[in-house]
Every structure is written in structure tokens, then in C-alpha cells.
Amino acid sequence: MRTLVFDQFEFDVPDSEESLELWIAAKRDFPFPDVRSFVAAATGAKAVEALGPSEPFSEHFGAGMVRSYLARFAGIVVPQPCDWPTYVLKQDNDEWDGVFDAGGMFIRYHWCTTA
């Protein structure tokens, strides 16, 4: 699994106090055959217990920030339209934490701001 961490100085407006953490892993029989095993490794067992049903990526994100940040920071191009199963772990105005089942890989995307 690869982990990428970006602090506020990687963003266009450092005063926004944004941060982004990405966990990316290939979907394989071992160690990540399913989303539950990936979530356990990337966030811990409690998150697996609270894991709800997925929704298609495009129901959460049209052409917005998540698409642009995945391309900019990880070189991952999100297809248009996109039906990746998306699992929301936390969502509010200052934080979005979730997991994408992106075909051959899993992605945990954790963005937040303190501004």
C-alpha cells in the first residue's frame, strides 16, 4: 500500500489549511481481496464495523475537487461518468473521509481543512 500525504503548502492557497492523505493499494487476493480488508488496513477495525453501503462515485462528486485532486496529487484520472463504489467514512464541511473501489485498486481519500 502506498500512502501520500500533502500539507497546506502543496495547495494553491496555503491559508486554506487543507491537507490530503491518500492510501492506494492494488486489489488482489492477498492482502486486499475486498473493500473491508482494505478499510481495516487503512483506517482500523472500527471503521469496518461502521462501513455502510456504497454509492456510485458520481452521486458524490461530479467534476469537482476530488477528481482534480486525485489527478493532480496521485495521477489518477477518474472516468466520466464514474460508477466506482464509494464508501463514506466521515463527511462534513471541514472533512471528507472515504474509500473508492476503483476497479483494480482501492483508494482511501481523506481531505480536511482547519480554516
Largest sheet, in brief, is:
6 strands, antiparallel
Strand content: 25-35%
Biggest sheet strand line-up: 1-2-6-5-4-3
Q: Compute the gyration radius: what is it?
A: 14 Å
Please give the alpha-carbon distance between the first and last residues: 30 Å
Q: How many β-strand runs?
A: 6
| SSE pattern | EEHHEHHEEE
The outline comes out as: globular
Helix content percent band: 10-25%
Question: What can be said about this structure in brief?
Answer:
With 115 residues, this protein is of the alpha+beta class. The chain has helices at residues 35-43, 45-49, 57-60, 65-74; strands at residues 2-6, 18-26, 55-56, 85-92, 95-101, 105-113.
Kindly describe this structure.
- The chain has 4 helices and 6 strands, in the order ββααβααβββ.
- It has one domain.
- A 6-stranded antiparallel β-sheet has the order 1-2-6-5-4-3, with helices on both faces.
- The mean pLDDT is 92.
- A hairpin with a 2-residue loop joins strand 4 (85-92) and strand 5 (95-101).
- It is an alpha+beta fold.
- It has helices spanning 35-43, 45-49, 57-60, 65-74; strands at 2-6, 18-26, 55-56, 85-92, 95-101, 105-113.
Helix-strand blueprint:
Elements: E1 2-6, E2 18-26, H1 35-43, H2 45-49, E3 55-56, H3 57-60, H4 65-74, E4 85-92, E5 95-101, E6 105-113
Considering the chains and any ligands shown, give keywords for the structure.
115 residues, alpha+beta, 4 helices, 6 strands
